[in-house]
Amino acid sequence: MHILLIEDDIEAARFLIKGLRDSGYTVDHVASGQEGLARALAGRFDLIVTDRMLPHLDGLAIIRHLRGAGLTTPVLVLSALGTVDDRIRGLKAGGDDYLTKPFAFDELLARIEALLRRHASGAGTTRLKVADLEFDLLERRVTRGGREIDLTSRELRLLEFLMRRAGQVVTRTMLLEGVWDLHFDPQSNLVDVHISRLRQAVDRGSDRPLIHTVRGSGYVLREES
Questions:
Q1: pTM for this predicted structure
Q2: Dist CA 90 CA 62 (whole Å)
């Protein structure tokens, strides 16, 4: 699941990004309201988490623009303004939930999961499937041929990235940026090591490997006849 985080407090953003990524989510972060609106309109996100008080454009104005453009992506508002009137204004602006700061991270996760379930019941896919490999995006659960596969949060993100691009060759650069959020090559075997572990977990015991190396290009997840 892909989350857009709009938060101008850098320390708070780092805390949220780490916690969400450790929980298996892919997170893009921007620090201003204008950039947040542009990213939300241009990208395909499963959820948007926005601070209310932002430079240039506040969180409620972002939501009004999104709803006016017909975008139904669920939005969770984070704010230090916690009166009943503040919460009502947030919801009336088009927000789907409103969480007052400070908050427990576990509560944030629970709210996110609830919003994703609610939105998924109306539209959108909650399950990826390639051959007999299935990924339940809400429960973060992977099975192959009915056998449950135990993966780390990083491996889940890597597998989701590959499954969403099934049949497409993905390069190491694409993986570093999309899974690790690294915009440079650390000149290490980071990607290769994680691909190897993921391949062992996914293809173990099967006579039909799904994760393939494309020499000189990268990797591809596909069923080969």
A1: 0.61
A2: 11
